[in-house]
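To whoever is on call:

I kicked off a structure prediction for a single chain this morning and the downstream step that reads the tokens threw a length-mismatch warning. I double-checked the sequence; it's 376 residues and nothing unusual in it as far as I can see. Pasting both halves so you can look.
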Amino acid sequence: MLRVPASFRNFGISEFLLSFSSLLSDHLRNHRLAEAALVFNRIPFPGVDLYTKMITGYAQRRRFDDALKLLYETPVRDAVSWNAMIKGCLDCGELSKAKELFDGMPEKNVVSWTTMMNGYLQFGEVEMAECLFREMPARDVAAWNSMIHGYFSYGRVEDAKKLFDVLPGKNAISWTSMIAGLDQNGRSDEALLLFGEMVASGVKPTLTTFGCVVTASANFWGLDLGVQIHGQIVKLGYCFDEFLAASLITLYANCKQIENSHKVFKESERKNVVVWTALLTGCDSNYKYEDALTVYKDMVISGVLPNQSFFTSALSSCFGLEDLHRGKEIHAATVKLGFETDAFVGNSLIVLYTKCGNVNDGVAIFKRIGEKNIVS
């Protein structure tokens, strides 16, 4: 019998269950699975939503036997519970287990089919994903978008374009996926033309769409269109988004207008590591090495932690100046933050030391790189 905590005795039963649901969610969110299980077992008649939360928690921790046991104990096993279990298996790399559950589902909905299709794409089984897409008894736009994205992920641009052309009811996500996919596959000019078609069709671009278009403009060196999009971004109030700011900084830097990159940076109210990295990389690519190292110093002072790309660009500026002293200072920071063994950072360190005549130090860095790539 459930013992009601004293603090809950003045609650109604709905508030009581809501409190337990909140506590369960908190434990699962913070990976306290044992505590979550204790809370779940104290709930008298958990609904399917609570069963689904617990099943997902077990699956995410690779406790598939416990998750399956709970799935079969669920009084009403709906598609949501099954889908949660299948996604949990896929997230843990268990494709065959996910397929076994999918095949055993009594009733599949479009989310079930799409989840399994995405699983095949996740593991590079594009042909199997195609088969599943064709076999779907009903497809929503999310299923079409997922298959289009999957084609682009594996470089099958023409297949993605053909699918998009026959997609009924294209939404903003459909258009944005196409724009991003074309740009990422080296067809930035086509991506920009497609954006024009999107606007002409009456579909409103989202914040994500603008980000993809600015990135495509930067890759294509399309300054005129990029400036127009920048104006639209300001007009719609999207200019406060960090990732859009970073894309605009890169656009102007790629088009050799680094002063405008600095202007966008200064106008950005919220500066995360992506925004700082975009400015530093832009300075470096425009041979403004001293400016780049000033950006590095300012970010460190601001308290924002550098990432892999930030260190790579900073080190690039050091060997651009052949400044071993400042390069060693940055090297010390990579060691402190655990980036020295990263292949990309390690490669930049090798170039720095060897270019400055310290071949033995370059060899030592090479040996410490965890997973060497062909560049190493």
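Update from on-call: the warning came from a stale cache, not from the record. Cleared it. Sanity check on the structure: The radius of gyration is 26 Å.
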